[in-house]
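Quick one: structure tokens for this chain, please?
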Amino acid sequence: MSIAPTLKRYLIAENIQYEEIPHEFTMSSTRTAEACRISGDRLAKGVVLRRDGEYMLAVMPASHHLRLTELRAQLGDDVDMANETEINQLFRDCAHGAVPAVGKCYGLNIIVDDSIEAQPEIYMEAGDHQTLLHLSHAQFARLTANALHGRFSAHD
């Protein structure tokens, strides 16, 4: 499958420089990091949230888990995780469960965990379970320039 068409068009339109890294089929971000021999701290994963009847994307390291209580403290009590059906409808051109850590091209606002901002380089799912995108810190910062930021995850 490679890069999801929506994501690829967006990266080209925004002139974002990236490297494609093929890897063995994996079904979790933790396994993907292991398969690619990269730190889970540098692999950005997207978690789809429902907030006030709309959707948004929380971006954090694959080595972390979401702390919903902290996210609610920052965004309000009406924040919950989206279900599989909702995620599949939002990311129609992505494989099931392979959500890229980019929201704008899918019409989603994002909130980025501060811990991923400290990384010198970032990897993320490309929309399938066999391709990662590798970006410099500067390129990732451009992708998340208008995002909310906060602390809402903890290391596993």
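The chain has six helices and ten strands.
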